[in-house]
Amino acid sequence: MRTYVANLVLRLGTFMASSDRPLQAFVSSTFIDLKDHRAHVINSLRNAGLSVDPMENWTADSDEPKQFSQDRLNGCDLCVVLVAFRRGFVPDGETRSITQMEYDRAVKQGIDILPFVLAEDAAWPRKFDELDKDPEARIWREQLRKRHGVESFSLDPRSIDMTGALGRWLAKKRPGRPESEKPVRLDWPDGKSPYRGLEWFTPEYAPLFLGRNREVDELVGKMSESGGRVLLVIGASGSGKSSVVAAGVWKAVLKDGRLPGSSRWKWQRIQPSDGDTPWDAVARGLKGAFELVTRPKVTEAGMLRDLLSRQLSQGEELILFVDQFEELFTSGFQEADIQRFLELLIGTARDTTNRLRVVATIRSEFLGKLEVYDSTLNLLNSPYRYHLGPVSPRMLQDMIEKPAEATGYTFESGLVERILQDTGQEPGNLALVEYALKQLFERRASRTFTVEAYETIGGVVGAIATKANEVLSGLDEDVRGAFDRVFAELVHLDRERPPTRRRTVVSTFSSNPAAVQLIEALAGSECRVLVTNGTGQEGVVEVAHEKLFTSWSTLTSWIEKSGEALREIDHAEEEARRWQKDGDNSQELWLGSRARNVFTAIERFGKTPSAELERFLRPQQVLIEKLSVDGLAHVERLLIGQKLAEFGDTRPGVGVKNGMPDIVWIDIPGGPITLDDVDHVFQVQPFKIAKYPVTNAQFEAFLSAGDGYRNTKWWRNIAQCDAVDQPEWSDANAPRETVSWFEAVAFCRWLGAKMGTSVRLPTEWEWQQAATSGDPMRQYPWGGRWDDSCCNGVESRLHRTTAVGMYPLASTRQGVLDMAGNVWEWCQNGYENPEQPEALQINKKGARRVLRGGSWYIKPVNLRASNRNWNFADTRFNDIGFRLVQDLP
User: Fold this and answer.
1) HEC profile for 326-350?
2) Is-above-0.90 flag for pTM?
């Protein structure tokens, strides 16, 4: 992660030395061994707004650089001294090194010194260690410690923390301020905090928004230009974007009238997540701005122009402040809606006749999202984008002290310096400071903020966690248990970016009293880590500040433990919309196991999946409907069957219910049947036949039942198998193959006993009656001529079975499926002399038993309904399965 040093960003603004110039700093050190450390310090000083003129391009080997370096100290306010394990170059005739002479010159001129000394135990390169051979080096280091008190650093240049050092230096440099710099005393209600804590500054608090005048001036300056009707304010989370605009710019433009006629203008703040679409959010905002009875329709540029024309009086303009612009990309909006919204909103604002201005804030890591749209790419390439950096120590000191002074409060001696020192190096710590200040206000001693209170709350970093955990611990267990439910709705987690806030309507939690109570507690006056706005159906709740994601350990830990599941839900939502948009491509579906994990997470967090997500994670009905598309490719049918198996095939007759095979029985009428090469007419009585061949899932129920496959009574008069062979293809909804005739008979006996009825294998004349729908003229189950799209035979080129029922358009008249191709099906009777009674006998003989229907490798001529085949009763091949019949009473 990129390290930001000390919040030392931007210039020090109006803070000057005795003359009207920026503060100047000089960095003194040896060069070769401290090259990287010097670069780090110089960069930090410049980012803080100090002027630094380093001499990185000369070598200390003569009197010229010696004098040159000392002369460069003239006019400096600060000298930063870095000392490792050597003094550096000592010119001829001198006893002090150039670094030491620079230090001496700084002391003589009264320049402030900030020394940093390498820690004694640092893992330093031996070639740069001269402590043993140059005793003066140790003396030099010790003198600095005694005279100034030093800070240590290590091998890592980033270990030099300029934050606390510069903060303390600034605090000492300006212990008092001229009366002209002190804020005017405000008439502020007693008992009302002058600090906002985690909340952004509103117009109500604008008089106390102090310390960021330069940034506000620059923003207003951009707005005064003809191209500044659309302004984008960019910054890291916690840099104060919302407050700079909502308080600073608002006050300058509307309150102070710093743009021509702007004191008469209107102002409206919105967030994209205020509505179901971006335009809905705009409509809600305009309803409030113009005090309309109903929400206006503004989905087209013309509608927006007309509304502005009707509602704005002569000389009025509307500034639409779109806060947290990144919500366009974190709220699940349709891509087309986002693109259209950006085009129309920006286009309307740039046309001066519409009298609309747009100021938007966005987190810097989302800029890439704006680059894909022409409207915002042009804005990014214009001068009307403003990068807001973290506050500098000088600005932060004003933001701490001035609100207190303006409202009549004081800080105990040393407390401001302590806060500045503790602020840390990360951008966004402004939010932590504001929260700590609000806690100090609540624990004040009369009108004084005390060191004792500061230590009690845990300082800048600990204040949030201390208060939030204190509130949580006081809640009932069931209320604390709603943490998952609440924060799953309030935190958006992206795989490539840090967490962001998500606004949610309070009514989302109305059915969960514990969640409502948790929100009320965490948004209460004692805590405020959540913020609620509005009432009734308009009420929303959100996390008060994104800094909570890293500073409140309870929430940080929750994100670490829950983040992956939440990201997966959001990712699934995106994929679901894309899947539906792209035509429900079966190949784009997730694994069934992954989908089940998402549903588990949805249930855990109490979320309600969108309709798109529901059909993406439970695509069975969509897939089943696709099977009825004429001309669907064989490979697509195979894939659909596999996906149905993954997600759980919901079709009746395919799986198991309550541990028992779920068979759909089809009534077949009786009638005469003749068999090929058999001189006999078989009179078929009405019967029931299974819609599909027995599937793997159904046969597995027989294998796993305690009274199933191993029970000897199902094997009477037939050869009991010692062990089952595994099927070649194990999808639960695929036909069970690699099964012998003996095993098929045993299965029928077991299921019949369970059902209390007769279940058996069909005779081949019954099978043929079902396959032809009782019409001897039908060559194939679907009727008519051969059609290679109607079954899984050799011409499908799949070279394997599919799930049962993948060719619904090829069903018989009665609705029986898979009677051609996929697997051969055992029949009860023997192959020779089928008209003889002994052909139906069930016995141990491995005689040839009839197979019907053809299989996945059979040619069309052998897939006819009349085609006869056979194999031995103990045969197990990967193209042989079976189907069931039932006698009618």
Assistant:
1) HHHCCCCCCHHHHHHHHHHHHHHHH
2) no
